[in-house]
Amino acid sequence: MQDELKKLVDKHDRDIALLQQGQKKLEENVNSLSDLKSDMAVLNTKMDKNETFMQKQFDTLLTAIIGKNDQKEKHAHEFRMMTTGKIFGIITVSITSGGILFWLVQQLYTLFMNKIGG
Q1: pTM above 0.90?
Q2: What is the pLDDT of residue 1?
Q3: C-alpha dist (Å) from residue 72 to 51, 68, 77, 90
Q4: 34 φ, ψ (degrees, to nearest 5)
Q5: Integer Cα distance of 28 and 50 in angstroms
Q6: Distance (Å, rounded) from C-alpha 107 to C-alpha 2?
Q7: What is the spatial distance between Cα 73 and Cα 80, in angstroms, rounded to a whole number?
Q8: pLDDT score recorded for residue 118
Q9: Is residue 111 over pLDDT 90?
C-alpha cells in the first residue's frame, strides 16, 4: 500500500511538474503575443504615417497635373485668340491697302484722263 501511495505521490509530483511547465510555456506564449501586439501597433502607426505621406504626395501630384492641364487649355485659348487676331489684322490691312491702292489708281486715272482729254 505504501508503494501505491508513493507511486501516486510521484505521479502527482510529475503531473504538477508538467502543469508548471505548461503554465510556463503559456506565460512565454502570452509574453510573445504581447510583444507581437506591440510590434503590430508600431507597424500600424508607421503605416498610417506612410499612408498620410503618400496621400499628400498624390494630392500634390494631382494638383500639379490639373494645373498643367488648365495652363495648357489657357495657352491653347490664347493661341487661338492670337491667331484669330492676326488673321483679322491681315484681312484689315489687305482691305485697307486695297482701298488705298484703288483710290490711288482712280486718282491717277482721273489725272491722266484730264491731261489727255482735257
Answers
A1: no
A2: 77
A3: 31, 6, 9, 27
A4: -65, -45
A5: 33
A6: 154
A7: 11
A8: 54
A9: no
Burial code (b: 16+ CB inside 10 Å, e: under 16) for 61-72 equals eeeeeeeeeeee
**For the residues of the chain, what is the DSSP string, one character each?**
-HHHHHHHHHHHHHHHHHHHHHHHHHHHHHHHHHHHHHHHHHHHHHHHHHHHHHHHHHHHHHHHHHHHHHHHHHHHHHHHHHHHHHHHHHHHHHHHHHHHHHHHHHHHHHHHHHHHH-
CA distance 92 to 81: 16
Per-residue pLDDT tens digits for 27-56: 998 888 888 888 899 988 999 999 999 999
Type of residue found at 87: I
* C-alpha cell at position 84: 484669330
Assigned C-alpha cell, 100: 488705298
Question: What would the pLDDT profile of 8-18 be if each residue is shown by its tens digit?
Answer: 888 898 989 99
